[in-house]
Amino acid sequence: MDDRSDKTRVIRQAGTIPYRTRGRRIEILLITNGGRTRWIVPKGTVEAGQSAEEAAVLETWEEAGVAGRLEPIVIGSFAYSKQGRRHHVELFPLLVTSVSDVWPEMSQRQRCWTPVQEAVRRVRRRGIRMGVEALLERLSVQRVA
Questions:
Q1: What is the pLDDT of residues 83-107, one digit of tens each?
Q2: Could you give the CA distance from residue 109 to residue 6 in angstroms, rounded to a whole number?
Q3: What is the DSSP string of 37-100?
Q4: Tens digits of per-residue pLDDT, 39-67?
Q5: For the chain, what percentages of helix, strand and coil (3-state, to nearest 5) are there?
Q6: Is the CB of residue 124 less than 8 Å from the CB of residue 38?
Q7: Does 5 score more than 70 pLDDT?
Q8: Rounded to two decimals, what is the model's pTM?
């Protein structure tokens, strides 16, 4: 494959919107990007032979140091460009059941539990905000049912 066709290929990524409940309150786990300049959610490239769900769980562990129960439904998605390459990200809800004090990218990122509305305010990327709002709606419906 030549460089020109490789540059036009969309890079498939997957991530999670990690959350926990505290009584009736839902909290979202945000992390900083690699440069610690923006609040985001864990995400990364889906490698050959890997499902989006597998990639999302692995990236969440590496970037945020948490594990949990992933729901295999896409709760949000967005596209972006970086270094002239197009990326498409699918986000899955992940109910956090384990938080580690030590994780692979702990020296590169900060993490912060925040109420849903604060998470929506902190995150710049519209697709992540919409995913957080969709998660809140999904959890609210589940609580009523």
A1: 899 999 999 999 999 999 999 999 9
A2: 30
A3: SSEE--EEE--TT--HHHHHHHHHHHHH-EEEEE-SS--EEEEEEETTEEEEEEEEEEEEEEE-
A4: 999 999 999 999 999 999 999 999 999 99
A5: 30, 40, 30
A6: yes
A7: no
A8: 0.90
- Roughly how many angstroms between the first and final C-alpha of the chain, as a whole number? 51
For residue 129, report the phi and psi dihedrals to the nearest 5 degrees: -55, -45
Instruction: For residues 27 and 36, give the distance between their C-alpha atoms in angstroms, rounded to a whole number.
Output: 21
DSSP 9: S
Tell me, what amino acid is at 73?
A: I
Query: What domains are there in the chain, each with its CATH number?
Result: 7-144 (3.90.79.10)
Chain centroid to Cα 127, Å, comes to 11
How far apart are the C-alpha atoms of 19 and 115, rounded to whole Å? 10
